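TA notes, week 10

Several of you asked for a full example with nothing omitted. So below is the full record: structure tokens for the whole chain, then the designed sequence directly under it. When grading your own attempts, check the secondary structure regions first.
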């Protein structure tokens, strides 16, 4: 039986894979007063200038205090507070540490939280973000040029310099996830980067997913339908694939949302929250694939909470 303590969610992915967007939506559904959100980038050893001088990337384990991250994640799991370092992405340097107490749910998002078994074993739910690579690059260019003071040339140079470490240390963590989230552009819409993206969710049997049998479709064109579930293999293992297209109409998205909420009796008060929000410049927009992805992850957190409270 799972011992009592905060429900732990790990969200891992490469730089600009959408970790913060996913975690913010989850936090909004559950309520900010019930969620502690930790960015694993805070455990970098070196600031931006030092990394450049040393020729090491932020993706390399040697550039991060993995041992302290392990210790802090375990302390949070035990319901104990931590004195967390703070890395400032705007300045590329470190701010004073902050005192953090775990709430009912703890989200750890970052590059390396599944890197060691000691960290992986702490999480109740593990999510890996695996967007189409060209799409991730577009997201990274937009974010780093508008929010972090880089030029497009500098961003592209950094992506190239990080490729080895991404391949060696980040992508292998995909194998440990319970859910793999793959946003990708619809055919013929190469410029799409927001609300009309499709998503393919790899649902591994390592955790019990909702009953999506009403959406199972093994016909050849299943992925072209608004929402469908197909059976298959991922990395040699049997999985379910949940496909949600970016042009899913509101009524179809509502049908899937109802299916998930039916499995969560007692949590009706959380349903009034707007989900699937993302920022397009200064404008807040809605994506149904994003909304349903966030809701499915919330389902697993609340389901774990129910088991804990028994």
């Amino acid at each position: 039986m799972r011992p009592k303590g905060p429900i732990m969610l790990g969200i891992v992915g490469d730089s600009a894979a959408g970790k913060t967007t996913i975690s913010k939506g989850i936090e909004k559904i559950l309520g900010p007063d019930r969620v502690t959100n930790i960015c694993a980038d805070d455990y970098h050893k070196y600031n931006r200038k030092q990394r450049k001088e040393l020729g090491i990337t932020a993706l390399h384990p040697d550039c991060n205090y993995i041992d302290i991250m392990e210790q802090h994640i375990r302390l949070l799991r035990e319901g104990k507070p931590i004195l967390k370092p703070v890395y400032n992405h705007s300045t590329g340097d470190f701010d004073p540490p902050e005192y953090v107490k775990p709430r009912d749910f703890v989200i750890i998002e970052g590059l390396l939280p599944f890197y060691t078994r000691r960290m992986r074993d702490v999480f109740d739910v593990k999510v890996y973000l695996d967007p189409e690579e060209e799409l991730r690059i577009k997201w990274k260019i937009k974010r780093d040029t508008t929010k972090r003071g880089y030029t497009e040339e500098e961003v592209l140079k950094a992506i190239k310099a990080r490729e080895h470490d991404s391949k060696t240390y980040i992508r292998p963590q995909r194998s440990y996830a319970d859910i793999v989230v793959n946003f990708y552009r619809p055919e013929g819409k190469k410029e799409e980067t927001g609300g009309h993206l499709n998503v393919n969710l790899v649902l591994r049997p390592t955790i019990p997913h909702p009953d999506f049998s009403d959406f199972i479709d093994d016909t050849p064109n299943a992925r072209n339908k608004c929402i469908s579930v197909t059976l298959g293999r991922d990395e040699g293992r049997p999985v379910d694939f949940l496909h949600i297209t970016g042009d899913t109409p509101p009524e179809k998205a509502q049908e899937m949302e109802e299916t998930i909420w039916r499995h969560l009796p007692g949590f009706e008060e959380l349903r009034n929250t707007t989900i699937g929000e993302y920022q397009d410049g200064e404008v807040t927009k809605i994506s149904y694939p994003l909304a349903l992805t966030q809701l499915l992850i919330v389902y697993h957190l609340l389901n774990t909470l129910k088991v804990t409270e028994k």
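The chain has one domain: 7-309. Use that as a sanity check on your answer.
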